Each structure stands twice: as structure tokens, then as C-alpha cells.
Amino acid sequence: MSFNLVIDSLNGSGDNGNLTFGIDWSFLADGEEYDMTFSYRSTSPVTNLAVEEPGTYDGGELYLSMPDLPNNNYEVVKDDNNNYGRASSSNIVGILSPFVYDNGDVATNDGSVFIFSTPHTFNPPVRVRKPLNNRFRIQLYAKVAAQNMDTATSRILMDTETQDYVLILNFKKCSCGK
């Protein structure tokens, strides 16, 4: 059994990179686990983002975070000595990939504009449970590189730079060995 939830950024409150929605989660059962996938599409093309741009060492993708969604996600992070290998709890559920295309006007951003278009098969499923309340946040983070442009060192929360979007969450009830 699976369910889809369609989220339009125009129905949230806040900035597009940090929106809050009122969602009735009664379609998900208490105490059950679900494998969640998502698809994402920004609704209008842009010619640049102040924080990052596809094809540069600044990253070129956004990270989708759902801090109110109970999950068991972890990511590998650096410790204070720049050694990798420590796992840290994470609200990141996937990456939003940019799609670059030619707008036919070489005077504007060298002819390239982009949208974020991520199919439901791009990121692996995330195991989640029903959120605890009906106030639900969706946040978008950009990867920001160090000054020398060699290593991505941090993520910043996007705000008004982010495009309007439609996000479709798919929840598939997990059999989890039953």
C-alpha cells in the first residue's frame, strides 16, 4: 500500500527555502514505518543563484531537509581534525539536482538557465514514521565551498533565492521483515 502527498510551495508560509505547512498526517498509521521517495520540480527557470551555480565547485545541487519527519538518517561528517568517518544524525532526505538548458540568448548567463528537476528514482528511499504534529517544515540547503573552491565545507539554508516548487512525497508501507 502506498500514498502520495503533493506539496506546492505556494501553499506554505515562510521563504521558499524554509517553508512550514499544515498537513493532516492521518493517512499514515501510528507506529508503522514507511519507505519514502520524492520527486521535485521547480516551477520557473532562473539564470543564477547567488550562493551556487551548476558546473562550479560551489556544488550545483540543493539538499532537501525535513526536520519534522521522524527518521533514522545519518551522514558521514568531519571531526574537528578534518577526519571523515563520524556519523551524525541528519534531516537530509535527498539531493535536488539542477537541469541546465540553453535559453537561446547568449547574452544572458552564457545562454544557460536551469530548473531543479529530480525524479522519484534519483535518491534512495528513506525509512520514516508518521510526524508527531501537523506543522511540517521543508527546508532547502545549498552546498557552499571554501574560499579556495576545493572542498565543500558547509550548507546554508536557502531563503528567497529558491524558486517556487512542487514536491511529491510517496510513502510505501514497509513490510520490515513481517
Summary of the model, kept short:
By secondary structure, the chain is mostly beta strands. Helices cover 0% and strands 49% of the residues.
Can you describe what's shown?
The protein is mainly β and 178 residues long. The protein has a single domain (2-173), classed as Jelly Rolls (Sandwich). It is built from no helices and 14 strands. Strands 1, 4, 9, 10, 11 and 14 form a six-stranded antiparallel beta sheet that branches. β6 and β7 form a beta hairpin. The two termini are 14 Å apart.
Helix % is under 10%
Beta-strand share of residues: over 45%
Specify the biggest β-sheet: 6 strands, antiparallel
N-to-C span = 14 Å
- What string, H for helix and E for strand, traces the elements in order? EEEEEEEEEEEEEE
Tell me the domain tally: 1
Radius of gyration: 17 Å
Number of helices: 0
Anisotropy-based shape: globular
Q: Quickly name the level 1 CATH class.
A: Mainly Beta
Overall average pLDDT: 75
Question: What key attributes describe this structure?
Answer:
6-stranded antiparallel β-sheet, 14 strands, mainly beta, 0% helix, 178 residues, Jelly Rolls
Layout of secondary structure:
Blueprint: E1 2-8, E2 13-15, E3 18-22, E4 33-42, E5 62-65, E6 74-78, E7 84-89, E8 92-96, E9 98-102, E10 112-118, E11 126-129, E12 135-145, E13 152-157, E14 165-173
Antiparallel strand pairs: 1-14, 2-3, 3-12, 4-10, 4-11, 4-14, 5-8, 5-12, 6-7, 9-10, 12-13
